[in-house]
């Protein structure tokens, strides 16, 4: 079984992925895959530099923060970034799924549905929480300003999108223990065995 995990930045999709990993799933964090590709895929770096200019390069590598400032303030730039990166990321995630040797895989990606990566999954789980919680988590996690965090939230899909497009929804605005219990209930609903 391949279980997709998606939701807006700051909703806790990676936390859900880690909880599934603790239950025996092979966990693929698409954002981490993206960062690894930025560091090691020369063709991808060349395509990004050609589109967004030399200002996104620092010390010979893509400066993710500089790139984020561009794409989260300009819808056309975000679309261009997605057009360049999605196919490359999906290809790598597909390779990881095929090569992991595990019966149960969890794939976490903010743009899982929009990118087409959801087609690799047997079911998709949306992780949601309120915007105030998201804002606080993003600011703390990424050490950015509230304005930058608000721009990221505004550039992403709202809760209604995930409710409409996901097979299951997990609410992550309570305690870690409650989220863990919700993951267990989800696995029971899906009929997926838990492997400690």
Structural description of this entry:
The chain is an alpha/beta fold. Helices cover 58% and strands 14% of the residues. The protein is built from ten helices and seven strands. The chain has helices at 13-22, 30-40, 42-52, 64-71, 75-99, 112-115, 131-142, 146-155, 159-165, 176-190; strands spanning 2-6, 26-29, 57-58, 61-62, 105-108, 123-128, 168-171. The strands form two sheets. Strands 2-5-1-6-7 form a five-stranded parallel beta sheet, sandwiched between helices. Strands 3-4 form a two-stranded antiparallel sheet. Strand 3 and strand 4 (61-62) form a beta hairpin. Helix 2 crosses helix 5, helix 3 packs antiparallel against helix 5 (75-99) and helix 7 packs across helix 8 (146-155). The longest helix is centred in the middle third of the chain and has 25 residues, at 75-99. It is globular and about 50 Å long. The protein starts with a strand and ends in a 6-residue tail after the last helix.
Key terms for this structure?
196 residues, alpha/beta, 14% strand
Beta fraction of the residues? 5-15%
The outline comes out as globular
Rg, rounded, reads 17 Å
Helix content: 55-70%
Supply the helix-strand structural class. Answer: alpha/beta
Distance between the termini: 17 Å
Major sheet summary line = 5 strands, parallel
Q: Tally of extended strands? A: 7
pLDDT below 50 for ≥5 consecutive residues: which ranges?
none
Order of SSEs: EHEHHEEHHEHEHHHEH
């Amino acid at each position: 079984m391949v279980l997709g995990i998606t939701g807006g930045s700051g909703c806790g999709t990676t936390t859900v992925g880690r909880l599934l990993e603790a239950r025996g799933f092979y966990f693929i964090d698409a954002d981490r895959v993206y960062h690894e590709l930025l560091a090691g895929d020369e063709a991808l770096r060349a395509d990004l530099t050609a589109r967004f200019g030399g200002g996104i390069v620092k010390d010979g590598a893509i400066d993710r923060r500089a790139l984020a400032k561009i794409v989260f303030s300009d819808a056309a730039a975000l679309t261009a970034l997605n057009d360049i990166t999605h196919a490359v990321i999906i290809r790598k995630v597909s390779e990881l799924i095929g090569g992991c040797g595990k019966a149960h895989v969890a794939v976490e990606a903010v743009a899982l549905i929009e990118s087409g990566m959801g087609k690799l999954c047997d079911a998709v789980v949306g992780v949601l929480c309120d915007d105030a919680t998201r804002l606080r988590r993003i600011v703390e996690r990424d050490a950015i300003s509230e304005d930058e965090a608000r721009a990221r939230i505004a550039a992403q899909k709202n809760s209604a999108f995930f409710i409409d497009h996901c097979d299951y929804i997990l609410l992550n605005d309570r305690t870690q223990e409650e989220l863990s219990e919700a993951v267990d209930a989800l696995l029971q609903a899906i009929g997926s065995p838990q492997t400690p």
